[in-house]
Structures are given as structure tokens and as C-alpha cells.
Amino acid sequence: MAATRFDFAFDPRYTRPLGLIGVRPGRAYVDVGAVAVLIRFGPWRIRVPRTNIAAAHIGGPYSAWKVVGPHLSLADGGLTLGTRTGRGVCLELHRPMRGIEPIGLVRHRGITVTVGDPEGLAAAVTA
Questions:
Q1: Which residue has the higher pLDDT, 19 or 102?
Q2: What does the pLDDT average to over 8-23?
């Protein structure tokens, strides 16, 4: 089965600052495959086995300072990879995974992404 791609939706106000950290269209997407979900957010790459996805929740709108760029939630340890303040999808995980830093000291119980088609992504990962 070929992967289904969901591109991040970029708010023009944040395109330039995100580009400075390597996050730009073409380098920010979520690929949903038969076995895993691959999240690419500029230099960040996270591979989530489909078996580790417990649920997908649509949320938003968000505050810009909480969502634009890579963010670690101090409240629940979740990771947000955001390109806009509109709606996004939180992938709730069975087992926490690394993501914001490369060596895995910080583990996330959920990953929120601001793709252009939140309903489509939520349906694809839970199918």
C-alpha cells in the first residue's frame, strides 16, 4: 500500500520564521503508510508505528506561541509541530516516543500536527 501524504498548512505570517529553522512546504508533511506514520517537520523526523497510535483527536484553534514551530507541552509532555493556529490533529500514543530532541531523554504521549486536512489524517491513522 502506498503512503497517503498530508501536507502541513502554512499560515503566511509564519512561513519566514519557520523557514529559518528548516520548516517549509515540501519539508513538512505526514505520510500514513500501512505499517507506520512518518512525520517530517523540516529537520525533525518521527516514525510512529501504526500499532502505537491509540487515537486521533482534532483540536484547535491554538495560540500562536503554543503551536507555531516545534513545542514541548510542559502540562502533558506532548509534542506540537505547528505551522498555523487553525485546527490540527493530536495523535495519542499507547507508548511515549522521542521526538523533540534526538537522544530520547524526553518522551511524548501525543504528537499534534497542523496539516491541511485534519479530518482526512484522523480517519487515515485510525482506519
A1: 19
A2: 97
Q: Which residues contact 53 (CB under 8 A, 6 or more apart)?
A: 37, 91, 92, 93, 94, 125, 126
118: nearest Cα among 11, 3, 30, 14:
30
CB 98 within 8 A of CB 106: yes
Closest by CA position to 89, among listed 22, 18, 15, 8: 8
**Greater model confidence, 104 or 108:** 108
How far, in Å, CA of 90 to CA of 113, rounded? 7
With contact defined as beta carbons under 8 Å apart, do 87 and 114 qualify?
yes
Is the previous residue joined to 12 through a cis bond, with omega within 30 degrees of 0?
no
**What pLDDT score does 1 carry?**
64
Asked if 42 and 23 count as a contact pair (C-beta separation under 8 A), the reply is yes
Cβ–Cβ under 8 Å, residues 40 and 100: no
Q: Is 79 within 8 Å of 72 (Cβ atoms)? A: yes
What residue type is assigned to position 46 of the chain?
A: I
Alpha carbon distance 119, 98 (integer Å): 25
